[in-house]
Design brief:
16 helices, 86% helix
C-alpha cells in the first residue's frame, strides 16, 4: 500500500487530475449555489427562456475560434516553444469569429422562437461567444502546459463571479427576469475574462500573431469546430426545440435535470481534461497507443459513472425540495437522464483516442451522424411527449455515439495491426530477398 501510494503521488496524471478535481469540486459547490439561486428566483418559465437562449447560442459557439484551443493543446503538448504563435493566433480567431457569431445569433435567433426575448439573446451571445470563449482559450493554454491548478483557478473564478452576480441580483431586485439575469451574467463573465487573460500573460508570456499559419490549420480546426457543434446539437438542441415545440416551463424542468447530470460528470471531465494533452503525445505512435491509454482510464471512469447513476436515481426526490415545488417534474426527468454519465464517460474516452491519433475528421463525422439523428428523433418525440421525449432522445443519441466510437476504434486498430503484421512479414515473401 505504501508503494502504491508513493507511485500515485509520483504520477503526473493523478496529480493533475487531483488539481482539476479540487478546482472543479470548488467550482461545483459554487455552481450549485448559483444554480439554486437562479432556478428559484427565476422559476421554470424564465429559467426555461434563459436555458433556451444558452442552447441556441451553443449551436454557434463551437465555430468561434475554429478549434484554436484544441490546436493550441496539440502544438504546445508536442513543442512548448510554439505557444506564443498558437496563443496569438487563437486570440485573433476568437475575436473575429466571436463577433461574427454574435451578429449571426442576433439576426437569426428570434426567427427560431419568439418566446426568448431578443435582449436576452444578445446578452447571452456576447457572454458566451466572445467573453467565455476567450476564457476557454485561456484554460486550454494552461492545460497545454499541464498547469491544471491554473485551469481550476480560472474556472472557479468564473463560477464565483457568477455566484456574486446572482446573489447581488436577488438581494437588490425583488423579481428578476431572465433578461436582468442575462445582464448580470454578462458582467460577471467579463470580469472573469479579464482575470483569465492577466493570468495567462503573467504565467505564460506574450502572444505572437502569425496570420500566414492560420490558413494552413483551418481544415483541422474546422474538424474540431464541426465536431464541437455536433456535440452541442445532441447535448443542447433538445432544450431549444422544447422552447419552440413545447413550453418554456417544460424546458426549465428538463434543463434543471440535465444540469444536475452535468454536475455528476465533473470528476470524469476533470480526469479527461488532465489526460487530454497526453492523448496527443500518445498519438504520435498511432491508434493502438491512444486506444491502450483510453483503456487505462476506462475502468475508473465507468466505475464512477455507475455510482453517479445510482446516486442520481436515489437522490432525485430531493430536487423539488432544493429548487422549489415548481420543479417537481424534474424528479422523473432526472431519473430518465441518470444513465447519461455512463454513456458520456464511454464516448468521451473513445473520442479522445480518435482525436489523439489524428483522426479528428472521423470523430467529427460520427458526431454529425448522431447530431442529425438527435434532431430528427426530437422532431418526433418532443411534440408527442414533451420533456420525456427529449430525455429519451438524449439517451438514444449518447448510446448510439458510444457504440459508433467503439466500433470505429476496433475496426481501425484491427486494420492498423494487420497492416503492421503484413509490413513485418513482407520481406520474407519477397522473391528478390
Amino acid at each position: 500500500m505504501r508503494h502504491l501510494f508513493h507511485k500515485l503521488r509520483q504520477s503526473a496524471l493523478v496529480r493533475n487530475t487531483g488539481w482539476m478535481l479540487a478546482g472543479n469540486g470548488l467550482r461545483l459547490v459554487i455552481q450549485a449555489a448559483y444554480f439554486i439561486l437562479v432556478a428559484r428566483s427565476l422559476g421554470p418559465q424564465s429559467y426555461g427562456a434563459f436555458a433556451a437562449a444558452i442552447a441556441m447560442v451553443g449551436i454557434v459557439s463551437p465555430f468561434v475560434g475554429f478549434g484554436c484551443g484544441n490546436l493550441l493543446v496539440k502544438h504546445v503538448a508536442r513543442d512548448h516553444a510554439s505557444f506564443p504563435r498558437a496563443w496569438g493566433n487563437g486570440l485573433f480567431l476568437t475575436l473575429i469569429t466571436g463577433m461574427l457569431g454574435i451578429i449571426l445569433v442576433c439576426a437569426c435567433g428570434t426567427l427560431w422562437t419568439a418566446s426568448v426575448p431578443r435582449t436576452l439573446l444578445i446578452l447571452v451571445a456576447v457572454s458566451e461567444l466572445l467573453l467565455y470563449k476567450t476564457i476557454d482559450l485561456c484554460v486550454f493554454a494552461f492545460g497545454a502546459f499541464e498547469m491544471m491548478g491554473r485551469c481550476a483557478l480560472v474556472n472557479a473564478f468564473l463560477s464565483m463571479a457568477r455566484l456574486i452576480a446572482i446573489a447581488s441580483l436577488t438581494k437588490f431586485v425583488a423579481h428578476p427576469t431572465a433578461t436582468v439575469w442575462g445582464g448580470a451574467y454578462l458582467v460577471a463573465t467579463a470580469f472573469a475574462m479579464l482575470f483569465a487573460l492577466s493570468a495567462v500573460r503573467r504565467n505564460l508570456g506574450r502572444c505572437a500573431l502569425q496570420l500566414h499559419v492560420i490558413w494552413g490549420e483551418l481544415r483541422e480546426g474546422l474538424y474540431f469546430s464541426v465536431g464541437l457543434s455536433a456535440t452541442s446539437i445532441y447535448n443542447d438542441i433538445d432544450k431549444a426545440m422544447l422552447a419552440r415545440l413545447g413550453t418554456l416551463a417544460a424546458t426549465g424542468v428538463y434543463a434543471a435535470a440535465y444540469r444536475l447530470v452535468d454536475v455528476a460528470l465533473v470528476p470524469v471531465s476533470s480526469m479527461l481534461s488532465a489526460a487530454y494533452p497526453r492523448f496527443f503525445r500518445k498519438g504520435v505512435d498511432g491508434i493502438s497507443a491512444t486506444m491502450a491509454y483510453a483503456k487505462q482510464l476506462f475502468l475508473w471512469s465507468i466505475t464512477y459513472s455507475l455510482v453517479a447513476f445510482l446516486l442520481l436515481v436515489v437522490c432525485a426526490p430531493l430536487v423539488p425540495r432544493i429548487l422549489g415545488a415548481s420543479y417537481a417534474n424534474s424528479v422523473e426527468s432526472l431519473r430518465w437522464l441518470a444513465l447519461l454519465p455512463v454513456l458520456k464517460a464511454c464516448h468521451y474516452l473513445f473520442a479522445n483516442a480518435l482525436t489523439g491519433a489524428g483522426l479528428q475528421g472521423l470523430r467529427t463525422l460520427l458526431q454529425i451522424v448522431v447530431a442529425i439523428f438527435n434532431v430528427l428523433i426530437n422532431l418526433w418525440l418532443i411534440p408527442a411527449y414533451s420533456w420525456r421525449g427529449a430525455a429519451w432522445s438524449s439517451l438514444m443519441s449518447d448510446g448510439l455515439l458510444a457504440l459508433l466510437m467503439w466500433t470505429a476504434l476496433i475496426l481501425i486498430s484491427r486494420r492498423a495491426r494487420q497492416t503492421r503484421v503484413q509490413s513485418e512479414l513482407s520481406p520474407l515473401g519477397d522473391p528478390t530477398c
